[in-house]
UniProtKB/TrEMBL annotation:
GO cellular component term, pick one: plasma membrane
UniProt keywords, alphabetically: cGMP biosynthesis, Glycoprotein, GTP-binding, Lyase, Membrane, Nucleotide-binding, Receptor, Signal, Transmembrane, Transmembrane helix
Family, as annotated: Belongs to the adenylyl cyclase class-4/guanylyl cyclase family.
Location within or outside the cell: Membrane
Membrane topology according to the record: Single-pass type I membrane protein
Protein species of origin: Pedionomus torquatus (Plains-wanderer)
Pfam (any one): Guanylate_cyc
Gene: Npr2_1
Guanylate cyclase domain span: 46-176
Keyword match Cell membrane: no
SMART domains: CYCc
Protein name stated in the entry: guanylate cyclase
Chloroplast keyword on record: no
Length: 231
């Protein structure tokens, strides 16, 4: 009986670990208790989007299995890196990678700092990701960050997903789509949030036309004066 009990505990722990990789721990706890997870408003979070430069042409030059292997290598690398930061990976869609800080547990004013450090790490790390079918090739990341309010909640019953909604999500996505290879494009709101520490090297990009937003003043995040990315 003791052995069976131990086996049951191990299986339960494995199931919980898997659930915690799909949903935030606090949300998973409520779902296990069959409680309804209410959508929440967050006054300030920081959202990161990235994608692979030229992914469509890279994918066209290889088999579907090679695409899967390449993306798996990339996301295993990223997933292991982001564990060092106080962030939550929302989802991956194809080559797009979305991460947030500031929810579901509110982080005060540190969410922009966590995402900024993480983004510098990922942009450096992507150079080390091996493309199995292109051993001499290297991937390039295009990244964007925005800070602002959003709503978060669980959507669906079968395979429920923890989703973010609001204009902050759209603007963060626009920062990524208007970025450049191996660059981290940040909005004025994120720039203002990072100024409090005076720890970042930031360069003014200027005013650019952003679809659905008009002209926006944006910046390039170049580095952190007190933090160097390690290989």
């Amino acid at each position: 009986i003791k052995e069976k009990t131990e086996d049951l505990k191990r299986e339960r722990q494995l199931a919980e670990d898997l659930l915690h990789q799909m949903l935030p721990k606090s949300v998973a706890k409520q779902l296990r208790k069959c409680q309804k997870v209410e959508a929440e408003n967050y006054d300030q979070v920081t959202i990161f989007f990235s994608d692979i430069v030229g992914f469509t042409s890279i994918a066209a030059s290889c088999t579907p299995l090679q695409v899967v292997e390449m993306l798996n290598n990339l996301y295993v690398c990223f997933d292991s890196r982001i564990e060092s930061y106080d962030v939550y990976k929302v989802e991956t869609i194809g080559d797009a990678y979305m991460v947030v800080s500031g929810l579901p547990e509110r982080k005060g004013t540190k969410h922009a700092d966590e995402i900024a450090k993480m983004s510098l790490d990922l942009v450096a790390a992507v150079r080390q990701v091996v493309i199995p079918h292109m051993p001499m090739g290297r991937l390039q990341l295009r990244a964007g960050i925005h800070t602002g309010p959003c709503v978060a909640g669980v959507v669906g019953y079968k395979m429920p997903r923890y989703c973010l909604f609001g204009d902050t999500v759209n603007t963060a996505s626009r920062m990524e789509s208007t970025s450049l290879p191996q660059k981290i494009h940040i909005s004025s709101a994120t720039y203002d949030a990072l100024l409090t520490d005076d720890a970042y090297e930031i360069e003014l990009r200027g005013e650019i036309e952003v679809k659905g937003k008009g002209k926006m003043k944006t910046y390039w995040l170049l580095g952190n004066k007190n933090y160097s990315v390690q290989n």
